[in-house]
Amino acid sequence: MPDVLTHLLVGVSLALLIRKDGPRSAQMLIVLGAVLIDIERPISWLLADTPLYWIGLGSAFHSILGAVVLSYFAAACFDFENSVFWKRFKLILIGCACHLLLDLVMYPWNELGLQLLYPLKIRFSFHLLWPDFWWYPLFGITILLLAISVRYLNLRMKKEDTIE
Ligand SMILES: [Zn+2]
Q1: What confidence score (pLDDT) does residue 51 get?
Q2: How far is the CA of 87 from the centre of ligand 1 (A)?
Q3: Where are the domains of the chain?
Q4: How confident is the model at residue 1 (pLDDT cuts 50, 70, 90)?
Q5: Strand, helix or coil at 124?
Q6: Could you tell me the distance, in angstroms and rounded to a whole number, from the CA of residue 53 to the centre of ligand 1?
Q7: Per-residue confidence at 73, pLDDT binned at 50, 70, 90?
Q8: How far is CA 110 from CA 45, 77, 101, in A?
């Protein structure tokens, strides 16, 4: 599942860039959001041979509505001390938005693309890359290396400012 690995790497990159000085729990909420939407896969596998199986689950989760609902539930579940619900919700939703954007880049594995406006059946996709190519995780690794470089440069510039 190279696409899940790529979601994880891009989520970590995003957390390093936009919450660089925040607590680690805030960074992890962004990473959680970046992979949360694909939770429909294990749920689908578990329900596959039961009457509860729902073929539209993947489309429902991979939508703006799905991202908002999943972020809401996750923000309610991860109630850290000294954290505000809406801040947790916002961080998870940022990760979910990153996930949807990355899935839009992939060639549609799900018929013709994502139903972002679910329950409307309008499909969106940039039709760029197949996620099953062996080199696909290289995109995630490249983005992570760029994020680490930017963070390192920022830290170095801060150090030089405090020395002067
Ligand atoms: Zn996905």
Answers
A1: 82
A2: 23
A3: 2-163
A4: very low
A5: strand
A6: 18
A7: very high
A8: 16, 29, 15
